[in-house]
Write a structure and sequence with these properties.
binds protoporphyrin IX containing FE, Haem_peroxidase, 310 residues, two-stranded antiparallel sheet, single chain, mainly alpha, heme, metal-binding, Peroxidase, binds calcium ion, 3% strand, Haem_peroxidase_sf, 4 strands
C-alpha cells in the first residue's frame, strides 16, 4: 500500500532533492524530463513499478530488460544515477529506485509546465529483471486493438491509454520508428493517409538533414519541450508522429477519438486525467512473493551479506 507520506520522516526533503537534480539536468538536456517519465512507464509495464528496468546485464544472473527490443536505445539512466547519488547522500539507504522513477516523472512533468500532484510512495526494488516481459510494451506501429489490449492487460482502460500517450507532448523519437509512414505504408506504395502531407514532408526533411546515425524528430512539433495539450491538437490535425499516436484519433468508430477531442479542447480535463492515470500506472505491483529491497545502486541488486543467506 503506497502512501504520499512514506518518506515524511525518513527523507522529508526528497521532492526538493529530486527537483534540483532534474532542473539541473534540463539545463543541458531538454529531453531529460521526457527520458525520465519514459523510464517510469517502461518500468511499470514489466513486473510492475519495481525498478527492474534499471538493472544492467550480469550474465547468468540478471537478464537485463535493457536487452529487450522495446528498451533498445532507451536513455536517461545517467540522470537516474545522479538523482540517486544526491538522494543517497541526504537519506542513505531509504529511497527505492522505483520511487525515484515515480517522483522524477512527476517533477519532470511539473518542470515542463504540466500539473503538480502528490506521488504515492513506498515501492521496493526488485532483485530480478524480466527481459521477456518487455514484450508487454507497446510498439510504434501497433494498431489501436493491440494498444488497448496491452493497456488492458495492465488494468488500464481507453481513457488511461489516451491520457498517458499525452506524454508524447515532449521528447523525441528516432526516425526509424515512423519512417514506414512516409512512403510505402503497409506495402501500399503510398504514405500513411492519416499523416498530414505538409507535416510528412517536414518529417522527411528533419530525418534527412541530421548528420547522425540516429536522426530524431520532436513528438510535438508545436511545443516540443512543454507539457501541454498540444499533442491532442496535433492528432486532430493528423500530426501524430507514430502510427500508435495517430491510431488514437484516426481509427474509425473508436472510443478513443472522442477522448482525444475532449483533451484537445480542454487542457484541464487532460491534466486531471493524466494525474489519475499516472497514479494508476504507478500502482502497478510486481508479482507477489518475490524478494525486494531498497537498492543502493540502481543498476545492480544489493550484495548478499552472509547473514542474509543463513
Ligand atoms: C501508447 C503506447 C506507446 C508507444 C507505442 C510508445 C512508443 C515510443 C517510441 C517508439 C518512442 C521513441 C523511442 C526512441 O526513439 O528511442 C517513445 C518515446 C517516448 N515515450 Fe512513448 N510510447 C507509448 C506510450 C508512452 C507512455 C504511456 C509514456 C509515459 C507516460 C511515454 C513517454 C515517452 C516519452 C516522454 C518519449 C520521449 C523520450 C525521449 O525523448 O528520449 N510513452 N515512445
Ligand atoms: Ca518493472
Ligand atoms: Ca508539448
Amino acid at each position: 500500500q503506497l502512501s504520499p507520506f512514506f518518506y515524511a520522516t525518513t527523507c522529508p526533503q526528497l521532492p526538493f532533492l529530486v527537483l534540483n537534480v532534474v532542473a539541473q539536468a534540463l539545463e543541458t538536456d531538454d529531453r531529460a524530463a521526457a527520458k525520465l517519465i519514459r523510464l517510469h512507464f517502461h518500468d511499470c509495464f514489466v513486473n510492475g513499478c519495481d525498478g527492474s528496468i534499471l538493472l544492467v546485464d550480469v550474465p547468468g544472473v540478471i537478464d537485463s530488460e535493457l536487452n529487450g527490443p522495446p528498451n533498445e536505445g532507451i536513455q536517461g539512466m545517467d540522470i537516474v544515477d545522479n538523482i540517486k547519488a544526491t538522494v543517497e547522500s541526504a537519506c542513505p539507504g531509504v529511497v527505492s529506485c522505483a520511487d525515484i522513477l515515480a517522483i522524477s516523472s512527476q517533477i519532470s512533468v511539473f518542470l515542463s509546465g504540466g500539473p503538480i500532484w502528490v506521488v504515492p510512495m513506498g515501492r521496493k526494488d526488485s532483485r530480478i529483471a524480466n527481459r521477456t516481459g518487455t514484450s508487454n510494451l507497446p510498439g510504434p506501429s501497433e494498431t489501436l486493438v493491440g494498444l488497448k489490449r496491452k493497456f488492458r492487460d495492465q488494468g488500464l482502460d481507453s481513457t488511461d491509454l489516451v491520457a498517458l500517450s499525452g506524454a508524447h507532448t515532449f521528447g523525441k523519437s528516432r526516425c526509424m520508428f515512423f519512417s514506414d509512414r512516409l512512403d510505402n505504408f503497409n506495402q501500399t506504395g503510398r504514405p500513411d493517409p492519416t499523416l498530414d502531407p505538409i507535416y510528412r514532408e517536414q518529417l522527411r526533411t528533419v530525418c534527412a538533414t541530421q548528420q547522425t546515425q540516429q536522426p530524431r524528430a520532436n513528438f510535438d512539433p508545436v511545443t516540443p519541450t512543454r507539457f501541454d495539450k498540444a499533442y491532442y491538437n496535433n492528432l486532430v490535425s493528423l500530426r501524430g508522429l507514430l502510427q500508435s499516436d495517430q491510431e488514437l484519433f484516426s481509427t474509425p468508430r473508436a472510443d478513443t477519438t472522442a477522448i482525444v477531442r475532449n483533451f484537445a479542447a480542454n487542457e484541464r480535463a487532460f491534466f486531471k486525467q493524466f494525474v489519475k492515470s499516472m497514479i494508476k500506472m504507478g500502482n502497478l505491483k510486481p508479482p507477489p512473493g518475490i524478494a525486494s529491497e531498497v537498492r543502493l545502486d540502481c543498476k545492480r541488486v544489493n550484495p548478499v551479506r552472509a547473514y542474509d543467506v543463513m
